[in-house]
Amino acid sequence: MDNAKQWLDMGAGQVIVTSYIFPDGKYSEHRLRELSQSIGKDRLVMDLSCRQRLNTSTNETEWVVAMNKWQTLTDMTLNANVMHQLSLYCAEFLIHAADVEGLCQGIDASLVQALGQWVPQGVPCTYAGGGRTLADLQLVDALSQGRVDLTIGSALDIFGGRGVTLDECVAWNAQHS
């Protein structure tokens, strides 16, 4: 918590929080509430990396929050109720699809579609993982009904990628803002 205040005091506009709210892989609403009250909800971004798994009880796919370089699954499974509860303490979400992150092989369409339904109206949400082309920007927009943004990393020219240029992304955003 002191670290977050220090960054904000040095001029950061927001702080991104990840594993701090999952001590020993267990969600701590107390830690999240305390941090949110300390620095202000409007200055807190929740970064939730997640991994896909099959729930053997329901035979349905679910996304579990992961930490420690995506190797440790926490006790939190993303769904509409969880996203609503977390949104009480933060200004926006950054969701990493760990299973496709950095591969430049396409987005996790199922997760993007679910996020479009789960993220509370008016809460910004950025999805990261697998984005590689302008078509992926369009797909995320369509699947989420315009409620989720996409960040492109490894495929972007400024990071050495060959999938899309920064100029193309800026132009796409200008046309769709």
Short structural summary:
The chain is 33% helix and 24% strand. The chain is α/β, with parallel strands linked by helices. The protein has a single domain, classed as TIM Barrel, CATH 3.20.20.
Could you characterize the architecture of this molecule?
The protein has 177 residues and is α/β, with parallel strands linked by helices. The protein has a single domain, classed as Aldolase class I (TIM Barrel). Strands 1, 2, 3, 4, 5, 6 and 7 form a seven-stranded mixed β-sheet that branches.
Q: Which range does the strand content fall in?
A: 15-25%
Task: Give the C-alpha Rg.
Answer: 16 Å
The CATH superfamily label reads: Aldolase class I
The number of domains is 1
Please state the structural category: alpha/beta
Number of helices: 6
Describe the global form. globular
Instruction: Note the gap between the termini.
Output: 34 Å
**Proportion of residues in helical segments:** 25-40%
Which fold name corresponds to the CATH topology?
Answer: TIM Barrel
Major β-sheet, in short?
A: 7 strands, mixed
Number of strands: 7
Low-confidence stretches: none
What's the CATH C level? Answer: Alpha Beta
